[in-house]
Write a structure and sequence with these properties.
220 residues; alpha/beta; TIM Barrel; 8-stranded parallel beta sheet; 8 strands; 20% strand; binds D-xylitol-5-phosphate; binds zinc ion
Length: 220
């Protein structure tokens, strides 16, 4: 069984000490950098944009997992590829022609991800599951870090795992929002592959140690 991954969310980092926090992730047992891009339209918050991502990529030594919470993401696929994104995740709710968007992401050499809001049923992805490298199940309403985990997520993970197995797909399941040491194991047992963790990592007294603990929890 492949090792389960932790993707610290840079949204919870100290932006005045961004290089320090990027180096912390580099040196830690974390697997990916999770980067939240918000436009203030698709979600009621604005995070950061291209210049900040460019500087993160300059220092980061691990996979760059970009989560776009923006309307009309097709406009920016090439931009994010050029900036160095390895995985580009768009929201199901923001894509009128999702199949086309997924192909466009792959044509730029990135892995294609689809995020779904808490109200979106995983079954809506079945017809494109073989085209999706990663499904990001939102376990909070997107827009802010530090919210509490929605318990219905476990059920969604199990349902999605069934769809993936049934279609013989190799899609990874990522969970985003409210992940802590209290729900990490249960999420993995339900079928998750990657856990995003923002506040739980960065608000802890020793982020490096917190990442190590999460990795232990999900891989034992
Ligand atoms: C929420 C973002 C998440 C967020 C997670 O819209 O997509 O990635 O940073 O933060 P925590 O772990 O604090 O819920
Ligand atoms: Zn995210």
């Amino acid at each position: 069984m492949a090792l389960k991954r932790i993707a610290p969310s840079v949204l919870a980092a100290d932006f005045a000490n961004l290089q320090r926090d990027v180096e912390m992730i580099n040196k830690s047992e974390a697997d990916w950098f999770h980067i939240d891009i918000m436009d203030g339209v698709f979600v009621p918050n604005i995070s950061f944009g291209m210049p900040v991502l460019r500087d993160i990529v300059k220092h980061a030594t691990k996979t760059i997992d970009v989560h776009l919470m923006i309307v009309d993401p097709d406009r920016y696929i090439k931009t994010f590829a050029d900036l160095g994104s390895n995985i580009l995740t768009v929201h199901y709710e923001a894509c009128t022609h999702l199949h086309r968007t997924l192909q466009a992401i792959k044509a730029e050499g990135m892995k294609a991800g689809v995020a779904i809001n808490p109200h979106t049923n995983v079954s809506l992805l079945e017809d494109v599951i073989n085209d999706i490298d990663l499904v990001c199940i939102m376990s909070v309403n997107p827009g802010f870090g530090g919210q509490s985990f929605i318990e219905n997520t476990y059920k969604k993970v199990k349902q999605l795992r069934e769809i993936i197995v049934k279609n013989n797909a190799s899609t990874l399941i990522e969970i985003d929002g409210g992940v802590t040491n209290k729900n990490a194991k249960q999420l993995i047992d339900a079928g998750a592959d990657v856990l995003v963790a923002g506040s739980f990592v960065f608000k802890s007294t020793n982020p490096n140690q917190t990442i190590k603990e999460l990795k232990e929890i999900i891989n034992t």
